[in-house]
Amino acid sequence: MMKKIILLNVFIFGILSCNNKSVDSLDNQKYIEAKSSFNRKLVDHFPKKVTSYPFQTVNSKNISKSDVRFMLYEHEKDLKNVDSVVRSLEKKSLAKYSSNDSCLLIVNRFETLKTYENVEDVAITDSAKINQDCFRNLYPIPNFIENEFSKGKNGIYLENNFDIYVLEAKKGNWFKEFKMIPNPQMPANWKNGYSKGIAVNRGKKTLIYWGVIW
Predict the structure, then answer these.
(1) What average pLDDT is seen over the chain?
(2) Considering the domain boundaries, does residue 1 fall inside one?
(3) Domain extent for 180
């Protein structure tokens, strides 16, 4: 129940705030404190502070569901800022995918809105989707199920025309503060790991920063 309340508060906050208005110090303090609760290695690509509304943060440490993540959704960003981020990503990223791609290696791909919102156990409805040949050279990316501003109908809950840049992804348990068990939703060579990156939709002036551990 607490998780649902937090997400609802973020959603209302984003709706009521004026677009492009400078973020007040208290909201930035909350963002910085939430980000600081994660290892710097996971979140060092996030902005030092949030500069405009609307935005949404997601802070999950649900080890039992292999759902440890910090995410920042920034909407209605200045295009100069979006383009600057993209130029940096083009130089630094390990891989670039599209939300339109037919094959993506998704962390917790069987999560549904119902299981997420009610913090329920996830049922693996099609085990053939866990290990697919097309995953062979892919890096894991998160689902974006908690996005309160808009949801796509694909496997990652992201609208079409997002470019997804992976900055870093490694197999295994790298964060001693989180005792993760093997994730049954992931292929054999990615049962545990972490991934970080940024998804961009220039048309919607949206940036989504992620750091996920499973």
Answers:
(1) 91
(2) no
(3) 25-213
Look up residue 106 and give its DSSP letter. Answer: B
Q: What is the pTM of this model?
A: 0.91
Arithmetic mean of pLDDT, 81-97: 98
Q: Cβ distance 141 to 98 under 8 Å?
A: no
The tens digit of pLDDT for each residue in 181-199 reads 999 999 999 999 999 999 9
Asked if residue 49 is part of any domain, the answer here is: yes
- Could you tell me the end-to-end alpha-carbon distance of the chain, in angstroms, rounded to an integer? 22
Cα separation, 187 vs 129, in Å, equals 9
Q: Tell me the helix, strand and coil percentages in the chain, rounded to 5.
A: 30, 20, 50
Residue for token digits 């919102």?
117
Q: Can you give the pLDDT at residue 10?
A: 39
Asked whether residue 17 is domain-assigned, the answer is no
Q: Which two tokens stand for residue 105?
A: 């290696």
